[in-house]
Structures are given as structure tokens and as C-alpha cells.
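Practice problem 4.
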């Protein structure tokens, strides 16, 4: 892999080992081991796997597509500097989440984008857009808006990004017990609110 103007360009894609297994089929752990061993195209594979997720997450925090792309570049620049010697102990999303969040907040501050005091507004809009109707979208957004920020963040990481409880705890640097408590409280409020109670029926 070569870098040109901050962009990684894949060279010939080699196998992880001497077998005939394509590099694209390797697990994240295998790709990281390959990068640590000097197999630079493996980084391009990881970039392709997580690029869209990073952009989506960055947009949740920034509400700005251009800033989200800037955060994408900064995130992977931060990531590549971890090599060689990087060790993955959880999902890569768990490792990348704090970096994306912090870089997004910094990007918003630098550009002076304070359209709202709540960095989760864009996230709420995204979730609302995925519901079945405009009425349901407004309902879900309103109820989520009423939750404490810490509850919303845990709910999003668990159910939108698909992280396990332990991975959420790692991403937020809080105990698993705290994650469980916030998740429990957040779900209870959603279940008890008459506007969203029907989503939990059946």
C-alpha cells in the first residue's frame, strides 16, 4: 500500500499466509497481524470494511457530511500510527468509537458548528428516518430526546452499532455494570412511555 495526499492506495493484494486464502477473507485479527508483519494492503482491507461505519458515526456527531469525511481521514490516520505493534483486544468498532467521537466533537468546535448543544440530534434524526412512518419517526425522536444523553449513547451503541455490553463499556471507558444500568433505565423509559410502548408489545 502507498499513501498519496493522505489517501491509502492498495498495491497488489497478497494472501495472509502461504495458503490460497484471499486477503479479503481474513478476519480483523488476521489482517492486523498481517499489517504488523509489514503487509500494507491489509490496511486497505480494514479501511474498506469500516469506512462507511466511521462516516455514519461521524455524521451522527457532526450533522455535516463534509466534516464526517474529514473525521474519516483523521480516524484512519490515527489508526495507522498504531502500527506496527497494535493489538486488538475487542471489536475494532470498540477501539475506533472513542477516536471517532472525540475527533467529531473537535471538528465541530473547530468549524464553529454549534447548531445544537446536543451532539445526538443528528443521531436521533437518523434513527427516526428508519421507522415506518413520519408519525412514528416524530414519536421515536421525541422520546429519545427526552432520555438523558448517557442513556441514548448506550442504546445507540448496543442496538444501532451492535456492540456487546463489554464492548460498549470499553468504548465508553465505563464499567459493564454501568452500561447495564444505563441500558436498563433507558429501555424502561421507552417501555413505560405511552408513545413508544407499542414497539415493545409482543
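Answer key:
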Amino acid at each position: 500500500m502507498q499513501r498519496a495526499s493522505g489517501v491509502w492506495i492498495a498495491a497488489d493484494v497478497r494472501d495472509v499466509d502461504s495458503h490460497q486464502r484471499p486477503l479479503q477473507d481474513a478476519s480483523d485479527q488476521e489482517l492486523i497481524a498481517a499489517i504488523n508483519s509489514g503487509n500494507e494492503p491489509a490496511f486497505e482491507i480494514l479501511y474498506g470494511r469500516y469506512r462507511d461505519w466511521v462516516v455514519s458515526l461521524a455524521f451522527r456527531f457532526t450533522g455535516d457530511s463534509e466534516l464526517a469525511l474529514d473525521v474519516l481521514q483523521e480516524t484512519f490516520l490515527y489508526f495507522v500510527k498504531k502500527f506496527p505493534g497494535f493489538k486488538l483486544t475487542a471489536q475494532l468498532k470498540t477501539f475506533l468509537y472513542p477516536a471517532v467521537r472525540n475527533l467529531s466533537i473537535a471538528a465541530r468546535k473547530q468549524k464553529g458548528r454549534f447548531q445544537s448543544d446536543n451532539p445526538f440530534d443528528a443521531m436521533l434524526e437518523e434513527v427516526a428516518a428508519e421507522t415506518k412512518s413520519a408519525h412514528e419517526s416524530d414519536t421515536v425522536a421525541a422520546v429519545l430526546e427526552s432520555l438523558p444523553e448517557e442513556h441514548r449513547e448506550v442504546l445507540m451503541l448496543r442496538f444501532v452499532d451492535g456492540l456487546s455490553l463489554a464492548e460498549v463499556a470499553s468504548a465508553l471507558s465505563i464499567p459493564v455494570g454501568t452500561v447495564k444500568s444505563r441500558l436498563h433505565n433507558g429501555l424502561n423509559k421507552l417501555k413505560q412511555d405511552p408513545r413508544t410502548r407499542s414497539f415493545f408489545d409482543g
